[in-house]
């Protein structure tokens, strides 16, 4: 595409992108707009043949792309970001329709895409040099080849971009498989890429879970970067093990937030609520368990309730809405299960018990469960919806142990006026990203990954780049 020219993209027709071309399919599927419950446009379901063709095209494109100077790859990534920005409004509209998120948050996600590409473009692939009298040893990093990116539905655009940018920068080719719940923005994003990158460098195949599995099993795919649930992550690892693929697994979380007794209650309580209910709780690093010091428990919970009651839930176009619907029916039923279980067990709904069956879309008013027992579902599992438990604590050692008493280890928060003390607590929490005096706000500048069953490896940040590379150590003897 020549500079300054705005590409024409039809935002109502969707194709897989294989070898630089649009591909339809005999089998189609339709996403559901979670705001209305109505079907959206047809999307082609890629066949095994489409997948094989995509892998073959990526394999063919790889040597030339790998050998393209990094400055040229960066130039093309920069052009891609620019072309995307020219369509920001259309991508925002599309994201509102497929995800239901309020327009201002959809616009933030769309704005994050050029941000992620731009940040990666500022990086260099490192070379370490070690020299002695006898030899020089260079530790270099070379691309892996064909990578597969399997993505979830909660941030369909930004999580795809977070895999595409480091993969292409380091000289890999990548095939994206979006979630069948939110395929639209990723398909259009890859279609836009055909105007910029050589065929086969960035492709997309829409499809169901079986297609994801086929990508993991494919012998010519060198790496899978997967973001999704822990249960699926285990399957991805199992399938990928058959060909010893590299895997990066970004999985579910059950983040604890510890509130120390010296916090400014009025200021912090609404922030903690935002950490729990951002994107209607459908965030891997949303706050999912809140531990409040007993001396301020009542007051803090009341402030949380006061703020929660002001949170408006509704369609993307009402500017006052802070939350949209739950993204899909399966998730809606799952989240409703946590409401039903909490009710059946007689737990206290501190912010009221919403009528979850009242609307056509998948809307749920957020609520807080006051002090359920440690073995309750709402403490033990990740609801991935707008419901969060609080519990009091009195002994710091005990609450750290309680926060760590989980197989998850994605994120965590500590809130306290004494930043040094809060930071000391943060360092003892078993999680990949811990936030002091903020709710969870991962940034592409820092590595993002989970401990324990929240993942393997990580992406983003300088170190994340290396997840798309093989170390290549060259020992050069002087004579
Ligand atoms: P999911 O695991 O159901 O699906 C994710 C993707 O995997 C989809 O594209 C799906 O089609 C594909 N898939 C399903 N079965 C597969 C298989 N056997 N082999 C290969 N691919 C397969 O997850 P979801 O419901 O889309 O997303 C929600 C989950 O993702 C939550 O648990 C959330 O915490 C987690 N998540 C994690 C991060 C992170 O960075 N750690 C970010 C967002 C979401």
From TrEMBL:
Its EC number is 1.2.1.3. SUPFAM superfamilies: ALDH-like. Coiled coil: none annotated. Keywords: Oxidoreductase. It is an enzyme of class 1 (oxidoreductase). It catalyses: an aldehyde + NAD(+) + H2O = a carboxylate + NADH + 2 H(+). Residues 27-472 form the Aldehyde dehydrogenase domain. The active site is at residue 250. GO terms for molecular function: aldehyde dehydrogenase (NAD+) activity. CDD domains: ALDH_AldA-AAD23400. It comes from the Eukaryota. PANTHER family: ALDEHYDE DEHYDROGENASE-RELATED (PTHR11699). Belongs to the aldehyde dehydrogenase family. This is aldehyde dehydrogenase (NAD(+)). It comes from Cucurbitaria berberidis CBS 394.84.
């Amino acid at each position: 595409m020549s500079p300054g020219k705005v590409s024409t993209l039809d935002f109502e027709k969707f194709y897989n992108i294989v070898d630089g071309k649009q591909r339809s399919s005999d089998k189609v599927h339709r996403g559901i707009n979670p705001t209305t419950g109505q079907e959206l446009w047809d999307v082609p379901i890629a066949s095994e043949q489409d997948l094989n063709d995509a892998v073959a095209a990526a394999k063919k494109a790889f040597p030339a792309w790998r050998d393209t100077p990094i400055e040229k790859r960066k130039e093309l990534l920069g052009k891609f970001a620019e072309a995307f920005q020219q369509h920001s409004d259309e991508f925002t509209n599309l994201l509102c329709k497929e995800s239901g998120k309020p327009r201002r948050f959809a616009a933030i996600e769309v704005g994050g895409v050029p941000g992620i590409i731009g940040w990666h473009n500022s990086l260099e692939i490192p070379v370490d040099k070690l020299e002695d009298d006898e030899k020089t040893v260079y530790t270099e990093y070379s691309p892996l080849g064909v990578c597969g990116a399997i993505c979830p539905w909660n941030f369909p655009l930004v999580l795809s971009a977070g895999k595409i940018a480091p993969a292409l920068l380091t000289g890999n080719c990548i095939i994206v498989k979006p979630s069948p719940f939110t395929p639209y923005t990723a398909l259009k994003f890859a279609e836009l890429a055909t105007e910029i990158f050589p065929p086969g460098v960035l492709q997309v195949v829409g499809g169901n879970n079986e297609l994801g599995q086929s990508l993991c099993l494919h012998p010519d795919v060198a790496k899978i970067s997967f973001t999704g649930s822990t249960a699926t992550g285990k399957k991805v690892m199992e399938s990928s093990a058959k060909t010893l693929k590299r895997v990066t697994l970004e999985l579910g979380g059950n983040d604890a937030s510890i509130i120390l007794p010296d916090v400014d209650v009025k200021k912090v309580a609404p922030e903690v609520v935002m950490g729990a209910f951002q994107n209607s709780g459908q965030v891997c690093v949303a706050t999912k368990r809140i531990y409040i010091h007993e001396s301020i428990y009542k007051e803090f919970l009341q402030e949380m309730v006061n703020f929660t009651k002001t949170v408006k839930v509704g369609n993307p176009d009402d500017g006052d809405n802070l939350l949209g619907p739950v993204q899909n029916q399966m998730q809606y039923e799952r989240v409703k299960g946590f409401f039903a279980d909490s009710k059946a067990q007689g737990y206290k709904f501190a912010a009221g018990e919403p009528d979850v069956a009242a609307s056509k879309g998948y809307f749920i008013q957020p609520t807080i469960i006051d002090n359920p027992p440690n073995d309750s579902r709402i403490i033990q599992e990740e609801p991935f919806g707008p419901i969060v438990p609080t519990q009091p604590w009195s002994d710091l050692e005990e609450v750290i142990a309680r926060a760590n008493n989980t197989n998850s280890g994605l994120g965590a928060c500590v809130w306290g006026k004494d930043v040094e003390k809060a930071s000391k607590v943060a360092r003892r929490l078993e999680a990949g990203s811990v936030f002091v005096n903020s709710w969870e706000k991962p940034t592409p500048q820092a590595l993002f990954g989970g401990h324990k069953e929240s993942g393997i490896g990580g992406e983003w940040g300088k170190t994340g780049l290396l997840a798309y590379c093989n170390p290549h150590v060259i020992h050069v003897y002087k004579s």
